[in-house]
Amino acid sequence: MFKKDNPYLKNTLGTFSIKDIEAVTGIKSHTLRIWEQRYGIIVPKRSETNIRYYDDSDLKTLLNISVLNDNGYKISEIAKMPKDTICEKVVQIGQSCCEFKFHIRSFVSAMMSFDETGFHKLLNTFILQFGLEEAFLKIVFPFLTEVGLLWQVGTILPSHEHFASNIIKQKLYVAIDGQVGKVNPNKKKFLLFLPESEKHSLGLLFANYLIRNRGHELLYLGQEVPLVDLHEAFGNDCPDYILTMMTAAQPDIDKQEYVNYLSANWPNSKIILTGPQFVNAELSLNENTQAIKSLAAFIEFLNAI
Fold first, then answer.
1. How many CB atoms are located within 10 Å of the residue 9 CB?
2. Potential cystine with 212: which of 18, 122, 179, 187 (Cβ 3.0-4.6 Å)?
3. Could you give the angle at the alpha carbon of 163 between the alpha carbons of 162 and 168, nearest 5°?
4. Which of these, 185, 187, 180, lies nearest to 241 by C-alpha position?
């Protein structure tokens, strides 16, 4: 996306450079130029200083072309197809596709265009087709990883990430509300929270859903919880499991001391640590502490309780 200091375009929403198109669609810049010249698959717009750019419609067209090309269609064939035919074939591929790359690209396209209705429809469709757990594990969270990469290379703005994550959170809140009343006769008690300064709450929300879905008791505190407050509020309580995760780098938190504090203050609880900052750290874990590498592994853990 063109940034505010770009001399050619002033951060126009829905306006993309050729590098943005490459990052989102996977079509290399030089390949796209050849396709434009040889097959006329798309005609880029030009700024007053003759810098090429693309709009939302171009992005969607190129995403569809990349899907067909990835699925065995030659660009010479695609160039002869009417747009309606391209869309129909993409839908057919999406319905029969076992790989989730296609579905992730659909999310990216809706996000880049700030297409709220389209994003909701995609999310609902994927949940109906695969079930909420598989849809989140195989599509939603890989999509969010893709969003992080696009943000790193400057293709998207923070507003894109907020747009997508807030819609996803809305869906999780509704799904969590739907678990009220489920009771497991062998229920366990969970305490969920994120460390102070940790703002990435989607993973914890998903864990909230997973635990409630299996009929366990749960106290969800959410993000940015200071350890001192946690101890004062729950020092005399003893949940069966305490789950916390750390996604973003936290240079002010000594992870080993953090884990030791939890282990020492709740010796009769099982402390579960997840998120890349915990999982990738070289931590010395006590008997009542366990690191779980992924949400898929956490599901396996839950199902074994």
1. 18
2. 179
3. 90
4. 187
